[in-house]
């Protein structure tokens, strides 16, 4: 477990809770939000992004979904470095806009797009790879959706926070540019 990023994520949760219901998001499939907490934007460092995509053996035939895509770095790398098509899902307007603009600037619109949506509400059927950088309790709430919507054989890579109840096929360490350690969990949907 990476204490630094965990600390940042947990601090963000506290800030979100302190900001009150207007900062609220997104709790579960359908219906009103179950919680006024959400995972804040803490970007995955580039070297760790690369390791996540390598761990999932992403290639040109893949469609990578990043649930909570932040500034779009994972979906952009999936297309630019691994030749995949990719879809990000981002609830926060400013991040959706920033990442969509970056994709247009890089000329990747035909292969990468960002849905401005709640990741609990999107269709995941086309995904062959899913990436996650969400807190463990969010992964726990996502699990039924992943079990229902993902096709057998879909690879799921979770950064730093495992998916409770699933057994990883592989767990590897990744080191960021500044030496921080991350733990990556690879799952394959049976
Ligand atoms: C820890 S950041 C990870 C960003 C990016 N995936 C990365 O690894 O660099 C989590 C992201 O999830 C987004 N998020 C949180 N809850 C969400 C939801 N229900 N639907 C879509 N995005 C969400 C946040 O706005 C934030 O950008």
Describe what is shown at a glance.
The protein has helices at 3-19, 46-55, 73-82, 93-105, 136-149; strands spanning 63-67, 85-90, 112-116, 129-132, 155-159, 170-175, 181-188. With 190 residues, it is an alpha/beta fold.
Overall 3D form:
globular
Bound molecules: S-adenosylmethionine
- Listing every helix as H and every strand as E from the N terminus to the C terminus, the arrangement reads HHEHEHEEHEEE
Q: How many helical stretches? A: 5
Beta-strand fraction estimate: 15-25%
CATH superfamily: Vaccinia Virus protein VP39
Poorly predicted runs are 13-36
Radius of gyration: 15 Å
Which strand order does the major sheet show? 3-2-1-4-5-7-6
> In total, how many beta strands?
7
CATH architecture: 3-Layer(aba) Sandwich
Biggest beta-sheet profile: 7 strands, mixed
Secondary-structure content class: alpha/beta
What is the CATH T-level topology? Rossmann fold
- Please indicate the count of domains: 1
